[in-house]
Structures are given as C-alpha cells and as structure tokens.
C-alpha cells in the first residue's frame, strides 16, 4: 500500500477477505487439511495487517 489515502471500499474488502479466510481456515482444520489451513491462516494474517495499516492512516 502506498502512502495515499485509501477509500472505505478497501477497508470493507480487507474485512470480508479476512473473515472468509478465517472461516475457510476453521473448516480446513476441522477436516484436517493442514496445508489449506496454513495458507488461509497466512491470508488472514496479511489482511489483519492491512486493516491495521488502513486504520492508522
């Protein structure tokens, strides 16, 4: 992300992606698909970082 101000559309996009990644991670752990759970856990972490960066700006 650049230093430019981002619109609220991006915040909502980050939140939706983070929620979907977390739900997918939970289902993957339930079905013991650890590779998928790891990947979606990483996506959730990156989106959480994006949300915090957006809030800070």
TrEMBL record:
Keywords: Membrane, Transmembrane, Transmembrane helix. The chain crosses the membrane at residues 12-29, 35-52. This is Lipoprotein. It comes from Parabacteroides acidifaciens.
């Amino acid at each position: 992300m650049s230093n430019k101000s981002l619109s609220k559309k991006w915040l909502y996009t980050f939140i939706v992606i983070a929620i979907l990644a977390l739900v997918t991670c939970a289902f993957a752990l339930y079905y013991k698909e650890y590779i998928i759970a790891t990947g979606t856990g990483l996506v959730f972490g990156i989106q959480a970082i994006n949300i915090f960066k957006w809030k800070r700006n």
